[in-house]
Amino acid sequence: MARAVRFLLAASLAISASGAAAAEDPSASFPNRPIRMIVPFPAGGPSDIVARLIGQTMSQDWGQPVVIENRPGANTIIGAQAAAKAAPDGYTLFMAIDSTLVMNQFVHKSLPYDPFDDFVPITLTAKTISVLAVSAVSGPKTVAELMARAKAQPGKLNYGAGTITAQLMGHRFHKAAGLDIVYVPFKGTPETLNGLLTNSVDIIYASNVTVGPLIDSGKVRGLAKLDRVAPASMASTPTLAEAAGLPGLEDMSVWLGLVAPKGTPPAIIGKLQQKAVQVLSDPAMREKLERTGAYTFTSTPEQFGRFIREEAGRWSRVLKETGLKYD
Q1: DSSP letter at 238?
Q2: Are 209 and 215 in contact (CB under 8 A)?
Q3: Direct distance between the N- and C-terminal alpha carbons of the chain, in angstroms, rounded to an integer
Q4: More confident residue, 251 or 243
Q5: Predicted local confidence at residue 100, as pLDDT
Q6: Measured between alpha carbons, how far is 95 from 273 in angstroms, rounded to an integer?
Q7: What is the torsional sign of CA 134, 136, 137, 142?
Q8: By the 8 A CB rule, do 46 and 210 touch?
Q9: What ranges in the chain are assigned the alpha helix state H?
Q10: 223, pLDDT greater than 80
Q11: Cα–Cα distance between 95 and 38 in angstroms, integer?
């Protein structure tokens, strides 16, 4: 009888210990319900495509749905605010873009979130190559021809961009080349592209993820890429610096990264980072992304945090020069 009592006591203590360990390590049972991934753009854009590719594999591997929630508007502020206010339990993720975590703080006086303190970095996910594109029917055939048209008609041409980064790409080029081209804002890349197709704008700066298929179909003409590091499929497209003869315009790409609300347990952050990197390291996934004009770009949470601050230092100087303000 005494031996049986000792056995039951030991078993009870073991169960209690395992329960305490599970309570101390919330990642042990994570995830055990659906995950929400907020994307601050409409469906179909670069952020949405990358989020859905990652979410689909996460769902398959973990056996839990990963629901993509599109919350576009206000230069990604609407989506960012929703993510920042979510419970810090790992079940709300945010596919941030460079403007969310870097540029917005410099162009908005009353930003309703702190890009450094309200989020926990998980990993960088991808870079998308942006393209200077025009209508294949009425647009110029080269960057040199575009520059000649703009100089002959100051203030008559306009350009569209769906992110602050894309807007700055246009601004930097136009300023360097001495061009007077009017900016037209859009809520995202798909709307920007539609503006070009409907002749609402003459020029766009947009991700090759969405503009690439229309370039291939002959409806849109890509005049230049904005980054030297690009997928092999874009090897024949000159960089803007080369095409315009203006050194210093290289390496203007848009990057994406996965973050969670502040306070999300480190163990869960680690599990999410490992899974995201695993998904993005798969050769088939890398090939799929590169076909769209993007390429994988991952990191540890610590590396991502340092990268955000380095980018803030880089772009704050550019934004100060441009004087861009939204409120």
Answers
A1: P
A2: no
A3: 78
A4: 243
A5: 95
A6: 13
A7: positive
A8: yes
A9: 2-24, 46-62, 77-84, 98, 104-107, 143-152, 164-177, 189-197, 208-217, 240-244, 266-281, 283-291, 301-322
A10: yes
A11: 6
Helix axis angle for 301-322 and 164-177, nearest 10°, is: 40
User: Nearest-CA neighbor of 60 among 285, 267, 294, 298?
Assistant: 285
C-alpha 236/C-alpha 43 separation (Å) is 29
Answer whether residue 1 shows pLDDT above 60: no
Whole-angstrom CA distances from 295 to 38, 151, 152, 188, 215 are 21, 35, 38, 20, 19
Q: What is the pLDDT of residue 163?
A: 79
Q: What is the largest CA-CA distance in the chain?
A: 101
Mean pLDDT of 125-146: 94
In this prediction, residue 199 has a pLDDT band, given cuts at 50, 70 and 90, of: very high
d(CA 44, CA 209): 9
Q: Tell me the pLDDT of the chain averaged across its residues.
A: 88
Structure tokens at 126: 């991808």
Q: Which residue has the tokens 């095409």?
A: 243
Q: In what order do the strands lie in the sheet with 220-225?
A: 182-185, 158-161, 203-207, 130-135, 220-225
H or E segment to which residue 39 belongs: strand 35-39
Residue found by looking up tokens 């136009």 in the block: 174
Q: Is 10 exposed, middle or buried (0-12, 13-18, 19+ CB in 10 A)?
A: exposed
Number of neighbours of residue 220 by Cβ within 10 angstroms? 23
Query: Which band of pLDDT confidence, cut at 50, 70 and 90, is reported for residue 17?
Result: very low
pLDDT in tens, 31-90: 999 999 999 998 988 789 899 999 999 999 999 999 999 999 888 999 999 999 999 999
Instruction: Please name the residue ranges forming H helices in 88-133.
Output: 98, 104-107
Q: What is the mean pLDDT of residues 249-256?
A: 82
Length of the chain: 327
Separation between Cα atoms, residue 25 and residue 273, nearest integer Å: 16
Task: Give per-residue pLDDT as tens, 313-326.
Answer: 888 887 887 777 77
